[in-house]
Here is the input.
Amino acid sequence: MKHPIREMVAKRQVGIHCGIPSFCCASKLVIEAILEQAKRFDDTVLIEATSNQVNQYGGYTNMQPEDFKNFVYQIADKIEFSRDKVVLGGDHLGPLPWADLPAEEAMEQAIKLVRLTIAAGYTKLHLDTSMKLGDDPAEEPLSNEKIAERGAILYKACEEAFQNRLRVEPNAVHPVFVIGSEVPIPGGAQKEKATVAVTSPEDFEATLVAYKKKFVELGLSDAWEHIIAVVVQPGVEFGNATIHHYNRLDSLRLCECLKKYPDIVFEGHSTDYQAPAKLREMVEDGIAIIKVGPALTFALREALFSLSMMEKELILDSQDRANFIEVLDAAMEAEPKHWEKYYHGTAKEKRLCRRYSFSDRSRYYMALPHVEAAVEKLFYNLNSVEIPLNMLRQYMPLQYIKVRDGKLPCRARELAKDSVVTMVEDYNYAVKYNYMISGVFVR
Here is the structure.
């Protein structure tokens, strides 16, 4: 069985327009929406978890790699979506969660993480060793050689873990790897920036040279067969209230340089909130793996807020309401560790960021039991009444059109998930030829 991402790269080599979205999310509702949409089109889906979300200590989701795999598979089984159509990925795998530790200790933790990830059956791994560790010189930039050396060490650990897996599962698909990290830490930029520097062709090629050298030094001369992408910064980013849109002229030199390396593609992080046409241009230009994360949970949060506004209109007794907006904000205020480094300013500005920031730090709180209970109560309340079509148009105009045309049931849970589907379709448009020629999803 050939890896779906290898097939994508092979198609691009013969001139077929294609790519693959990478959905980086641990929200049950979001993943359910993504898989349901994939089932409608018989798609393969790439779902990833970052090293902050999922690791040997549970991350902020309280899941290890095996747990996250089972979490995704349970959702797939529930909607009768084939597990074979799910590609599991690990994002920013490396010492990031332990960057304060001395290098030796941090790398030991990173090795444990990648071994667990391979053992759990993940087949797409982004090895990220770009961050400084506890005893790295603070005044000097981390060299390409050191980044590549640590990345090669992690790659070797992955290969050893895969050989162990083959003894149990002889037909296991060999994982593919992504290197490089010309991006901020997971979740978007911490500070608003006027411009975003595009990776230079020289820096891109320096990464390739450094890794090839370290692979040879560690006796991993065939490793390059399994490297299918390099993470670069093509000029896209988002902050709390800003979006840096893709400009293909800015990345022209970088994308022209990629043509010398037909066996690899670029992986673009922080592609959230890009217009569908811009996403399509990225894929055309070689940024064939387009990663999206906070925009997915932002779309869900947006829908839940709209449903909450309708609840206030339709459930007259405030004691009977779910009051989701207030419950979520209270949870964020009670435990600010997930947003306080990202949201700044006055009390009002922080409150608005908690509710509306593009970086969507509210996603860290959605799985809290009392927040989940508020969501379920919101769904129950709205399903116990009839949402008037004119009100639905006011608060959820895109879903109104589908309900009006008989394509979507006017049920609270389905309305919320369809808000996620709207975001997913921007990425389907970018990577699929039939979506491109139809023009249906252009906005």
